[in-house]
Amino acid sequence: MNLKExxxxxxxxxxxxxxxxxxxxxxxxxxxxxxxxxxxxxxxHEPEEIRALITKLIGKPVDDxxxxxxxxxxxxxxxxxxxxxxxxxxxxHFQDQGxxxxxxxxxxxxxxxxxxxxxxxxxxxxxxxxxxxxMIGKNVWIGANATVLQGVTIGDNAVIAAGAxxxxxxxxNTIVGGVPAKVIKKIDVPQESKRMQTNLEG
Length: 202
What we know:
Helix content: 25-40%
Number of helices: 4
Structural class: alpha/beta
Largest sheet: 7 strands, mixed
Order of helices and strands: HHHEEEEEEEEEEEEEEEEEEH
Shape: globular
Radius of gyration: 17 Å
């Protein structure tokens, strides 16, 4: 088992049976993540040092515009993709085995939980985990203490209210809140802002 094989497996949504070879490999990734996050969290680091540690953690470079206030926690790390101008505040927990993608310009508040694994419901299947990705669009704001569950896609410019538990997809340009999260209102994005965003992308 190697990292590519592991990522191909989880990104296909295949289960991870407890005690299997792939489960054992996943536990090894967890220990590597604990070593790196312990280094990140247990002393002060300059911004460029934080970016270097996150690059090591996720196995791919992060942009110079990325910033984070530790502590930060993950039990994998290798299935996270981070866009430009992303900010992650302190105390966040990312369970990323199923895949977490964070779009450009996204802000993630204190103590946010992103969870991409679920356990089997039947007692005899409880040790099996089932991955599904969390996809976060551009310019999303996730408020403090929010939880986003596996398989959720959050559209561009959406806002997740503090303390929300997001169990279903969130449309672009909407604000959701509550447990479970429901639409509170639409965000009326001016046409000029839409044109500027299109120009920046094209």
